[in-house]
Each structure stands twice: as structure tokens, then as C-alpha cells.
Amino acid sequence: MPDGELELEVVPYGPDPSAVNRAVEAVAAHPAVQAQDGERRVLATRLVAPVHKTRGLPSPPEQLVATVYDYTNNRMLVVEGALDDLEAEPPDGAAASDEVTAAPPDVAVSEYRGQPLPSEEEFLAALAVVSGDGGAAGLGRDGARAYRPLPPVLTVEQPDGTEERVVTVGLLGAGDVRHRIVGVNMTTREVLHDLPGTPAPSDHPCEPPPSAEFCDPTGSGGQVLVTVRQGGTTLWTFVATRPAASSGTNGSGVELQFVDYRGKRVLYQAHVPILNVEYFQDGINEGCGPTYRDWQNQEACFEAVGQDVLPGYRVCQAPARTLLDSGSDSGDFRGVAIFVQGQEVVLVSEMAAGWYRYISEWRLAADGTIRPRFGFAATENPCTCHTHHHHVYWRLDFDIRTPGSNLVQEFNDPPLAGGANWGTQAYEVRRPKDTGHKRRWRVQNTRTGEGYELVPGPNDGNASPFGMGDLWALAYKPQPAGAGPEIDDGQGFTTNPALARAHLDGFLTPAEQLSNPDPATGQPRGTDVVLWYGAHFLHAETAPEEVEHIVGPELRPMNW
Ligand SMILES: [Cu+2]
């Protein structure tokens, strides 16, 4: 293998960001959103691409989905429309001021009871109310500042059962305690103190202070096509999506699709759709958690110096520095930084969920090894001094050479009773890590022999009752009408332990076979498989400094 430098090519992929911006503006201005009967705000938009598991490149997104909150009627609206219709420019000669305008594009609107996550704009609106109430909140005193806390949103139940939306604001150094959380009723504009379900006021600071300012917005759209070459050989091609545009109920961090190594398909999709936090139930968690289902689509600022391919995608000459590297919450970039480090190409992003800062990273090496990585950090807050666990779940949709004929096998040394080192998983199954058996797994194409091994990382911990499991081997479920394939368990942010845990066991179908013997040869035949891999990180202030705050397995090619 040539040992030369890796050459990186990164180009925009998919719809033009200006067309996406036009579509987002069209949704915000649409009569279905700007109704006369209430105050509404677009909280999030994302693009949805059709699923086509063919060779080649993914189909570009065709649908725009906007999450809207209606403050007057206390409901959430999901507005969906075709990108082509929404982005269409006004016909020639038509000006915005013309009395006669074209009919608005068709959109589908569904309404729900529920509280979507606040956007940065909504948080700033809540902060403006708190600042106006500065005397009571203590903002404006020397050094006092606001940050985005957990939980990010609460509800106040009305006598008729409806729920009014309350956006929380964390206050640092304001008033007689170091930390305090207040809320703003977004319907009545009232500032609420002593909120049930939030961490108690605290004088125990942990972690570095949050950045005083947000870095410049870089939008929330776009995808890039990445090609990595070495000495004229193409090693890697894949499409990368930033956290803000990633798929799933709560986003997925940095998402990869159509990952080919040396011209052969490895993964159809690879991402982190489920992430949660668990505080120990020892009575001293002071209102933290007790659990949080977090989100992976809010980007935080970090240090990255380089050239922007698109807003939110920066190619760097030197490694980017996140909070884990710099110790600082500041930085002038948000999105995905892409760079070469030795024999690896690295994609990294920093994300925020309340005071947590999460690092989503992929390292793809010249020798075909893929290192998915997830890092854990936080800014000053009243909770993370208390011992807690982070649980992170990667979804790895392997399509080794083809979307079918993929077999899942498990390695045990010593072998399990009566078996060989490698055994085939015949049915959908959840399996624990078992270091006593040096347990690892592989996905192999039964027709061509190529495969990838998944080797647990040394810091990846073991599942607790809340952590649920270490590995799930599932059959890929094609997209049924009106629903996605099993991208995640559909659970949004919650603090309820019964809801926050990863509900991946619900995907285990007793009759779903991962392999069956070929009647002619007796050899096992495979199918299209998805592995979910969980890592469990114990975050304790008492842990020695050298404990790495990064977890993740290694994916290694075989017979490639
Ligand atoms: Cu932590």
C-alpha cells in the first residue's frame, strides 16, 4: 500500500443552500404557518431524502419538514412540502409587492400536543423577557450571564388540560447563588421562578464557563461529498451531513452515507441517533435528571481554521480543537471540520444539549479502519459534578458490497459451549460485550467474502439496566408507507427514565431471521443487516485526569 499523504477533496452535494434558504423562507411565510389565529414560530427545518439502497450516490433530499410552535393554541405543527415547489422563485416580472400572487405551494400540516426543542432564536426571545425582568432575575448585576440549561423546555398545565410552553434560562452568577434556572411562559411572557423539575439552585460550579457569545450562524443545511485519495488511488468516498441537518427524531451528530472503501460499499448509513444521560439515584443529584434523552442536532462553537466548502463545512490544514482539546467553550466555527491527521481523515463537530458539549467524530484510515468516536464535555453547570453515565448508540447500516447477503457473526475466545470461535446469529438479537470472551462481531458478504469487524473500544463500558445493551443485530426494515425505517425509537427529549432509555429492544422481532441455510448447499445465507452499538461512559469528578472522555469502537476490514 502506498504510504504517501492523504489527499482530501470535499465538494458540495445535494440541493444548493440558497434554494434551501428560499424554501425555508417560503415555509415561514406560508399561510399555513402565518395563520391569523395565533402567534407561531418555526423552530426547526430539515430536509428528507428518499431511501434508495442502490449503488452510487444517495438521492438528494426532496422534502422539507418544518417544526412550528403555535403559542396561542399550544400545539406543535409539522409542515411538510416538496422542496421543488417551496424553493421556486417568483415568476418573471412578479415582484413581492404585486397584489396578485401565485397560490402558495401545497404543504401538508399535522398537529400534535408536545414541546419541540427551543431554537436559538426562541431561547434569545425568552432571554429578552428575562432581561426585561432583570431586577427579579438578577441579570445585569456584575458578571451575571445566561446559558441554555436542562431541561430546555417545560410545560405549565392549564385547568382545561392544555399545556403552556415554558422555555428555561440558566443564570450564572446572578443573585445570591451561583446557578439558578428560571422559565419564561412563552404564551403569557411571564417569568417563572422555583420551577419544579429543574436542578435546584447551586453554589458548586463544575466545568469551564459557557462562551459569552454565540459564534456566527452557518445555517442548518447542506451536505458534502468527500473523496480521499492516496498516490492516485481512491481510498474513500462518502457523503457527510452536519449535525444540524442530520436524520432522526433528535438528530444524529455527524452522519455518513454511502461509505465506500476502495470502490466497495461498506455502509449505507452511519450515525448516532440515540444519546442519553443517567444521574445516579443516590439522593444527592439535586434535581439533575434523573435522566435526560439528549439531542445531536444543535451545533456548538469550536476552533477550526480553514476554507469553507459550504457554510458549516470547513476543510482545515490543522486539526480542529473542540472543548475537549482547548478547555474553552469559545470558537469561531460551527458545523463539521474536515482534516487529514497522519494516515486518517477526520470529520469532527461539537454539539450542545443544555450545558453538555458532545463531540461527534469519524476517523477513516488509509488501511480501511473506521473509528467512530463520541466525546463528552460540559460548560459550567449545577449538575455534572454529580456522578453520571452517558450512553451513546451508533446505528451502523452495513451494506457490505450489497444491501443483502450480509451475515452477522460473533467471536468468542474461549468459544461458547459446543461452538467454534465464530458463530452465526440466526435471528435478530441483543448481545452484551463480554471481555472475558474477547467478544467482537463481524458483518460479512456471504457471496464475496469481504467483511468488517466491529471491535469494542477499551473505554466503552458495559450496559447498566438503564443503558439497556451493548449490541443489537437487526434486519434492515424497508421504509413502510408514512414511516421511516428503524432510524431511532421516536423518543424526543425527556427526563423520565422509563422513556429516556434506548428502546431498541422494540426492534427485535422474534420471527426475523438474519440468516437461513441455502437449501442446496447448507451454507448460511445473509440479509440486509443493521448493527446498533452502545457505549457507556462513567463521568465522575473523582476519576483520574487521564481517563479519556472519548468512546467508540473500531471497524476493521477483512478480505478487502
Ligand atoms: Cu458528563
- Overall mean pLDDT stands at 89
> What is the rounded distance between the termini?
13 Å
Question: What share of residues is helical?
Answer: under 10%
Strand content: 35-45%
Q: Detail the poorly predicted runs.
A: none
Chemical compounds bound to the protein: copper (II) ion
DSSP E strands, number: 33
| Rg computed from alpha carbons, rounded to a whole number of angstroms | 24 Å
Largest sheet: 10 strands, antiparallel
Question: What class do helices, strands and sheet pairing give?
Answer: mainly beta
Q: What's the tally of helices?
A: 6
Overall form: globular
Short précis:
This protein has 560 residues and is mainly beta.
Task: Describe the model.
The protein has 560 residues and is mainly β. It has helices at 17-29, 83-87, 120-132, 134-137, 323-326, 497-500, and strands spanning 6-13, 40-48, 63-70, 75-82, 107-112, 145-147, 153-157, 163-172, 179-185, 190-192, 223-230, 233-241, 255-261, 264-279, 291-293, 306-310, 313-316, 336-341, 344-353, 356-365, 370-378, 388-398, 406-411, 422-424, 429-431, 440-445, 451-455, 471-475, 516-517, 524-525, 529-539, 550-551, 554-558. It is globular, with a radius of gyration of 24 Å. Strands 1, 11, 12, 13, 14, 15, 22, 25, 28 and 31 form a 10-stranded antiparallel sheet that branches. Strands 16-17-18-19-20-21-32 form a 7-stranded mixed sheet, with no helix packed on it. β29 (516-517) and β30 form a beta hairpin. Helices cover 8% and strands 38% of the residues. The longest helix is centred in the first third of the chain and has 13 residues, at 17-29. Bound molecules: copper (II) ion (CU). Residues 376, 378, 384, 388, 390, 539 line the site of copper (II) ion.
